[in-house]
Amino acid sequence: MNLKKLSLKRDQLTAFLMILPSLILIGLFVYGFIFQTAYSSFTDWSGVASGVEKNFIGLENYKNLFTKLLDVRFRQSLVNTLFFTIFFIAGCLSLGLLFAILLDQSIRFEGVFRLIFLYPMSLSFIVSGTVWRWLLNPKGGINLLPTLVGGEALNIKWLTDRTQIWQFDWLLLPKYFGYILLVVMILLAIRYFRNDRKWSAAVVILIGLATLAWLITGGPDKIQLLQYPEPHGFNLAMIGIVMAAVWQMSGYMMAMYIAGIRGVPDELREAARVDGASEIRIYRDIILPMLRPITLSAMIVLGHISLKIFDLIFVMVGPDNATTDVPGVLMFLTAFRGNQFAKGAAIAMVMLVIVAVVIIPYLVNTLRTEHEL
Amino acid sequence: MKKKRLNRILIYLVLIIFVIIFLLPAYMVVITSFKSPDQIELTRVWDLPSPWYFQSFVDAWKTFAPNLKNSALLVVPATILSAILGSLNGYVLSKWKFKGSNILFQLMLFGMFIPYQSILIPLFQFLDRVGLYGNIPGLVLVHVVYGLPITTLIFRNYYAEVPTEMIEAGKIDGAGFFKIYSRIVFPISLPGFVVVIIWQFTQIWNEFLFAVTLTSGTGNTPITVALQNLAGGRAVQWNLPMAGSIMAALPTLLVYLLLGRYFIRGLLAGSVKG
What we know:
The complex is a heterodimer of chains A (373) and B (274).
Chain A: H1 2-41, H2 60-67, H3 72-103, H4 110-118, H5 125-135, H6 145-148, E1 164-169, H7 173-194, H8 198-216, H9 219-222, E2 231-235, H10 238-262, H11 266-274, H12 279-290, H13 292-307, H14 311-317, H15 327-337, H16 341-372
Antiparallel strand pairs in A: 1-2
Chain B: H1 2-33, H2 55-95, H3 101-113, H4 117-129, H5 136-160, H6 164-172, H7 177-185, H8 190-206, H9 209-215, H10 223-232, H11 239-269
Helix pairs in contact in B: 1-11, 2-5, 2-8, 2-10, 2-11, 3-5, 5-8, 5-9, 6-7, 8-11, 10-11
């Protein structure tokens, strides 16, 4: 018996040794490299040639990105990402849900439809970007579609459009941030009260009150981000990129929702039907609420894809189209075309922080639910 | 009853409209790639080619054959290595859990969500230092390492379904770590391997950021980089990039058409955790 125990222990050690190389690789290539990038972002490092000095300059790079006149391109890239993310997620979720529900109606050739809606997923962003670039040519492609059915050609400039709508002033950002924080805290407080979590509610209310006080006493005005007002907004040129991205990824949402709808027990639907519920009500009151967890995890997956999107935009507009910049493209250009490695590292760290804010709570949450099981 | 009929017609109508929208880009690629350069006029982009012109594929093949070869040389070893490591890791993390293994797994998973920009500069320096910059083995290493989280995840979830009693029975019979793997776990791993291989194959074949950063300007660029170089130029003859797009898309498209079920499984595994 003792011998067996010993060999089990040895096996456990073998198991650990087998996974150790992977852990070391991840430790170095993920965490080690992130640490190095973080360090570089606090320096004035430019260029890889030997002899280039690397001096510690603290938060200077970050300060520049958010407040220096010259780095307006980075700020617009953040705004572009925000709008892109919203429209991309909204487009994928709604189309995916629509397809899933339509295909749930015992459709003939269901498999063929599914195949067609999902095939773009198997393509490289480089392939689809190349194709969409050609489709969005202002003098051809999609603009000519109406002429095929006898209509007038459209005159949309797509990727070359320079119009910006929904403008806001970067200077007012602290104020907007305060408002958003306030609203979130109020919503959270209501939720905690409903769930009878008084302590959490109290904490949230305290933060909310502090924010309110900060707003009323003119706190936001004291943060002088820029010397001059700087308008940012939604660049219409992004619409073409959203279209291509939604075309490529909505099939993924369809697959997720189809899997989710399959998971709804038939008895539940039958029971509702017996009770005289209409098909629409069955979807609204039974199936949609059950799809909520899927929607949440899909939003996180789609969200992190859109926050780090690079190849699609790079190939659709080429590297030098500032109107459609996103941080992913800008980081690549700054570091690897412009040799400004420290600044590139700072942009990369901003991207990482944004993604981490979305991903870490999600990962922690899945770990916790796993333990409860 | 009549209303129901109407509803069904409406459903099919909506579906068919979307089918047309989803196939339009594919139609455009195919017709453009079969046109001669002088046939490609903006006003007639949607017309079928007449006559059909096949030279673009010959030219595109000449241009892209080396890059397609590079992609193949990259994707085959990287996929196989990823699958083997993923399987072993998944086996350990599901059947030989140790103290802290869940946390380590979670830390590993984070690696699949990071924007790769945040590791790109040190990665580039590291590969340069160890002599793996600009060549295919370096790119293989990169894809294997950053593929570890997803391949481990897929196998771990797959092996979680294997009853622990089977493993326990093996232990009682005196089988060790490797024997249990080779006798019990590996033989039932085929579906897991198919899912992982398809997933990694598609991902690596389609990847661009690592490829463009680590092989640009060398003779080792994969197809995605070569295609971007051609299509991203100013004066483009569109028949060539379109023919190239078809060549770049075919391998993954074929895998999807033939093994779609497993493709979707990999897709879902990437988001549904636990």
